[in-house]
Amino acid sequence: MKVITSTTSLSRCMLVLTAATLLSSQCVLVSADVPFIRSLTLRGGAIRPRSPNNRPSISVTATSSKHPALTDRKSSSAATTNGPPATTTIGGASISNEIFNLAKAVVGVGVLSLPAGIAAFGDSPSALIPALGAIALIGVLSAYGFYLIGKVCAYTGATSYKSAWERSVGPSTSWIPAWSTMCKTFLACLAYSMVLADVFTSILTFTDNRTQVLLGVTVLALLPLCWLKNLSSLAPFSLLGILGMAFTAISMSKRYLDGSYALNNAAASLLEQVPKHLQPQFGSLGWRGAFSSGKSLILVCMLSTAYMAHFNAPKFYLELQNNTLARYRTVVASSFGISIVLMSFITAIGFLTFGKASAGLILNNYASTDSWMQLSRIAVAVALLFSYPLAFQGCRDGVLDLLNVSPAKRKSDAFLNATTVVLLSALTLLAATLKDVSFVLAFGGATLGNLLTYVYPALMYRSVVNKMNLPGEGLGVTIAMLSALLGIVMGGIGANMALKK
Fold first, then answer.
1. For the whole model, what pTM was predicted?
2. Other beta carbons within 10 Å of 275
3. Engineered SS bond to 491: which of 130, 139, 141, 446, CB 3.0-4.6 Å?
4. Residue among 334, 401, 324, 322 nearest 92 (CA)
5. DSSP-derived secondary structure letter, 366
6. If you compute the radius of gyration of the chain from its CA atoms, what whole number of angstroms results?
């Protein structure tokens, strides 16, 4: 491989380009006036105003019954005269609180694998040009899908992803998103276990046996945490996630700017302690690499996983104080805009530092004796430890739902503990076998991520529009279905590329 010994100037130009791209992507999210972006800003697409303050004059409490307008097409005109029916807020979260919580939910450990997605198709700093464009585009499309789910909840009174499907598409097929959600949370837990194995192996300098470290972390930490019946005590630790990612971004920036891992730098003492295959590698394959093969879709599919928070969309809509669609759009646009900025920055810094050698978890590229990155590893590890039970509980509940386990049986501590052991054992076995977390993220994003992000929201939205005879929503449905088709095509190609990788 041809090694470029002087990439400083080009790299710094790429940082300027990164900032410009981030600024433009933020502008796209906030102020673009094309129809499908418009639904994320102030105009609300074709939704009719409901009252002077954009709230219906009569409040209707969401219930478990189907909305009448979805079962009687003839009555839908009256139902839509004043816009979608109201859904009673179950919380009182302000817009700023919702923006922070949603951004925190979106920006997770998956962003640390994105530099490897760029390395899949390029080895020159100019490969960041299409990569940053993809991060911005997928972010906008993911935000649109997230918004559509809340919009479906507003029209139907649904309070969960599953009920949104039941009240729009129909209850007979509700097992489809249920299975998808359960499998996606399983893959999320698998990725968490793999990252914990890598991070703790780097932290614990007295051993390099990844499997033994993973078993120790699982038995001593994950199992007791997953056995907890009340996870409310873990809520304060959720802030550690965003703080850990912020510190990691600062540490990565410091190491890039001080040249600690730069090639042909006499002062780069840390580089000598990095295995040869993880040391920086740069060549001449830049932005053209994104179009010369389908490998760039690996990054696209990884992004579908990185932006995944869509099964929580009903929760964010319902918990928003004064939950009008205009306020909900502000939350979604701002949160995903912040996420695009953070993901782009961390991805750019990681790739500019290591190039083609970027590992599936970028933290693995840094020396184990690097004090700044060791602190980053500890921050990420602690955040993941306390986030793991939340994801695991969702996976376990999904399995029990699909197996139709009775509520009475679920109250049995012995049964829940046994189920936890079985699932955690399966996750640990897979995490010990698989080494590349970027593969899990890419394959999961290509399959389940694309379905939950693009396809299912589009199908639910189209069904609601058809059943309620909503006027002026035709273009929105067309854009949604095109997004779904694009997701299917990208997913098919991306999954094949991930398997070949």
1. 0.77
2. 11
3. 446
4. 322
5. S
6. 23
CA-to-CA dists, residue 465 to 36, 148, 239, 459, 460, angstroms: 15, 12, 38, 10, 9
In one-letter notation, the amino acid at residue 235 is A
Question: Which residues contact residue 7 at a Cβ distance below 8 angstroms, ignoring those fewer than 6 apart?
Answer: 124, 125, 282
Compute CA 439 distance to the chain's CA centroid, rounded to the nearest angstrom: 15
DSSP 93: B
Integer CA distances (angstroms), 282 to 285, 331, 361, in order: 9, 39, 18
> In this structure, what token pair is assigned to residue 410?
């679920």
| CA angle, 113 then 115 then 121, to 5° | 120
Residue in the block written with tokens 């529009």? 465
Q: What residue type is assigned to position 433 of the chain?
A: T
Tens of pLDDT, residues 311-363: 889 989 999 999 999 999 999 999 999 999 999 999 999 999 999 999 999 99
Q: Strand pairing partners for 281?
A: 355
**Number of helices followed by number of strands (H, E) in the chain:** 22, 0
Q: Which residues have C-beta within 8 Å of that of residue 21, sequence separation ≥ 6?
A: 132, 133, 136, 344
The count of C-alpha atoms lying within 13 angstroms of the C-alpha of 363, restricted to the half-sphere facing its C-beta, is: 33
**Cβ–Cβ under 8 Å, residues 118 and 18:** no
Return the DSSP state at 307.
T
Are 471 and 80 within 8 A, CB to CB? yes
